[in-house]
Structure formats: structure tokens, C-alpha cells
Amino acid sequence: MERAEIINHLSMACRDWGFFMVLNHEIPKRLMDGMLNASVKFFNQSEEEKNEYIHKNVLNPIRFGTSINNHEDKIRYWRDFLKIVVNPEFHFPVKPFSFRNTLLEYAACTRKMGKELLKAIWESLELKTDDIEVALDIKSCFQSIIGNFYPPCPQPNLALGLPPHSDHGLLIILLQNGINGLQVKHNNKWLHIKPLPNSFLVNIGDQMELVSNGRYKSVLHRAEVNGKSTRMSIATIIGPSREAIVAPSPQLVELDHHLAFNGMRYKDFLEQQQANPTQGKVYFGFT
């Protein structure tokens, strides 16, 4: 398939769905499996070991949390999570001991893939690919990796793994352990997404909606749980620099004859979104 045709398919996927699947990538399967296995080992540690990383500050570089059996929620959620900032500074939990090296390699590989995808998405918007480096300071991009652990739920019909939400970055690269549970809202219907083996799901984040002047919209999605199998997912969020002021591309504003959003510092948006993780989609600075 010629590059022009690929870019056209990518444009349609971003515009019509906000999700697409990546095959024939260069990330080895042994690293994909290794990242999933290392994450499971973290969640299988004792509560004392995991609780070392419980922090209230949403910008803390390593955060563990759980909503399992948390009766404060109006709706029951059934998930443990581990959020780690891996760029521009690399952080990692001390245990399990094998986690650091696997995380370091996986973060580098997904960051490289994410930057290539961003250039292709930029190209699909008919923008100069070099401009993205300047506009969003991609060399200092914010990258975080989130491990989501969904053990079997005794009452799956009464719980969700994650409520409907959009993601705060430019794009999100999702790896799963083969147990499906992701649902995407499309045309006001919740659809099950079943990725092909050895693939990644990629979705548009809130910052891409902003910078594209609303041409590519972030999409609400949620996670189901089940009563039989443990589901594990690894979400890699690629965002602009935390200090970048993210605003619609001037070229697109000129073409659209309309400024859809005001600019906003990514760090401020991140704090707002992470402080209200169950509110769905954060709406930023409409003009």
C-alpha cells in the first residue's frame, strides 16, 4: 500500500472513529509479553509493597491505586492501576526487580512508534510534519505508562473496570493480554473492540482534538469486567511537553474559518483531568 493511501486511511479512522489498530509494527512480541508479565508481577505483590506508591498528588511520577471494594464510589469500579511517568524523566518502581529494564525498553519503543504516528497524523491534516516538533515540543514529550489490572469480578453485571472517559494526551497506545473488555462509543452506541493478535490499539486524545481544531475528536471509551478471567492492559500516553501551550493549529483555523478552542497549558489540563477521573470528558476552553 502506498504511503498516500495509508495516510488517507489514517485520516478517515481519526475523523470517523478516533480509534485505529496498528499491525506490522517493530515492537517485538517478547517485549509486549514481557511488559504484561512484569505488570502482573507488580500487582501480585503484597499490599504493603504496592501501597508504597499510593499518592494523592495526581502529578506524582509513580502512583498506585485501587477501586476494588471501594464503597465510596457511587458506581462500583473494579480495577487496580499503576501510573508511571517515563519521559522526559524516567521513573520506575523498585519492585519487582525485573520491572525497570522491561519498562525502560518498552517506553523507548512505544515513544518511537508514537512519534512516527504523530507525524503521520500531522501529515493527514495536511500540515508540515516538522511543525509538530515546534508547536508541541515533542522532543520533551510527556509520556506515561498506565497498567490496568482487572481481576475476575464476582458481580460483573454491577461493576465497570473504568467508567466512560477520554484520554488527556495526543494519542494513546494500548496493549492488552488477549482478554477483551474495551468498549468505544460510536454513533451513540457502545461497541466492543476486539484487536487482532500482536497488534496495538491507538486512540486520539484530548490534546489532538484541541490542536486539530476539532477535526479529530477524542472518543469516550470504557472497560468492562468479567467473572472468570483477569484482564491486563497497558496504556501508553504520548502528550506534548507539560509546559507547552496547546492551541489549534493556525493553518487549520485559517482553513476552517473558525477557532474552535482557546489554548491551554498541558500541565493545567492534566491536573484538571486527573482530579476528576470519572467525569467523562473534560471540555477545554471553547471560544
From TrEMBL:
Keywords, alphabetical: Oxidoreductase
Enzymatic class: oxidoreductase
Superkingdom of origin: Eukaryota
EC number: 1.14.11.31
Name listed for the protein in its UniProt record: Thebaine 6-O-demethylase protein
Organism: Dioscorea alata (Purple yam)
